[in-house]
Amino acid sequence: METGDVGPGLCCASFNQDSTSLAVGTKTGYRLFSVTSVDKLDCIHESKTPDVYIVERLFSSSLVVVVSQSVPRRMNVYHFKKGTEICNYSYSNNILAVRLNRQRLVVCLEESIYIHNIKDMKLLKTLLNTPSNPSGLCALSINHSNSFLAYPGSDTIGEIIVYDANNLSTVTMIPAHDSPLAAVTFSASGTKLASASERGTVIRVFSIPEGLRLFEFRRGMKRYVNISSLSFSPDAQFLCASSNTETVHIFKLEQHSPSGEEEAPSWSAYVGKMFTAASSYLPAQVSGMMSQDRAFATVRLQMAGQKNACALAIIQKLPRLLVASSDGQLFIYNIDPQDGGECTLVQKHRLFGSDKDWEETEKSQLTEPAQACQSYAATVAIPTSGPVTATLTGYSEDGGAKKGEVIPEHEFAAGPVCLDDETEFPPINWCRDGSGRGKGRRP
Fold first, then answer.
1. CA–CA separation, 122 vs 401, rounded Å?
2. Strands 181-186, 2-4: parallel, antiparallel or unpaired by DSSP?
3. Which residue spans adopt a coiled-coil conformation according to this UniProt entry (predicted)?
């Protein structure tokens, strides 16, 4: 869902936990967009904070986490609607990634991981001496009832450590790939984990917490690629992968019928049975390649060689693929959930730049063909999976560590800021506590 150093236009781009919002950072500031309509992209917040390379929003709340190149060891947590700082924390090295859900805030450094309780920003656990992770690769389940955290277990092979950030204990180690990891992501429920290695040819999906391999998809065999973005659909029926090539692949997670007798006989079914039978007589490497599923749907982008952030979402009751490109555009594609194939570009939006500069581009934007929607709208069910949390009646936020200090594991500032808002999660509202911390600074 997130990628840093996207390209010359964007410093970073990330979708929020349920892909209803997009955050982008540039050299001159960052923006937050609401992604709930195909034809309209609303900029809900804009900040002039320069050189932002990490910006993460917590669902559709007013809480946003920002890290700037000017102070790469400091994380700032803002209430962007009120224009105030909630807290800030400094760490022993540069911050490489931040992940959020409704229970935990995780900060990833190259060789350590910090786990905070998001309700009061208390530091719960520090994972020290983790394998070298220069890209800050990690994933946090958005389902706060389990809060699984995944990070590399080795810098030489593709091992994944799955950690329970709620109970603060290691769950399992998954030997996912022969090469070092390049991408990991959880499904919305936290019961599936997808991964890709630096080779980028094979994408695997595992059950969580068991760590059993469920699916194996082949992106391609001709060349190695750098997969920068993996994302499940809300119902975990699809998985998309974006790389430094011009193609985005979408895979369908469907279990094949264990008994071919129940299916209507067909030539393809017969051939499939013959391949299955023959695979038992072939070397493991060859039979494994035969059993891997190819992409169910694809998108061919207008550019290659850049990192892009991609996400699968339901917008206006239809499944869409969202791609935030390195040149500062958001592309929205239709996905046919029955037949797959080449996805249809239905809209594109600019993410930065002046209205005058982009006026001609916006006039020529593609509009969504009505027939395309009608052809498969009836086959799409609105996913109901994913965490549903009742609005909390109270919320406290730590006042923040002193500037320039590294926070000790068991020391946090006194005088929490009370937050309460019935219309948001987390419910956010300022209460006077006499400390005055976090006030006066604008994001």
1. 11
2. unpaired
3. none
Is residue 227 within 8 Å of residue 196, measured between CB atoms? yes
Among 43-57, 80-94, 427-441, where is mean pLDDT lowest?
427-441
pTM metric for this prediction: 0.76
Q: To the nearest 5 percent, what fractions of the chain are helix, strand and coil?
A: 10, 40, 50
Please write the tens of the pLDDT for every residue from 282-292.
454 443 443 45
H-run or E-run covering 218: strand 213-218
The span from the CA of 163 to the CA of 307, in Å, is 28
Q: In what order do the strands lie in the sheet with 309-315?
A: 309-315, 318-324, 329-334, 344-350
- Residue 356 C-beta-side C-alpha neighbours within 13 Å: 0
Separation of alpha carbons 122 and 170, rounded Å: 20
Enter the tokens of residue 409. Answer: 């594991």
From CA 372, how far away is CA 346, in angstroms rounded? 10
User: Three-class SS of residue 397?
Assistant: strand
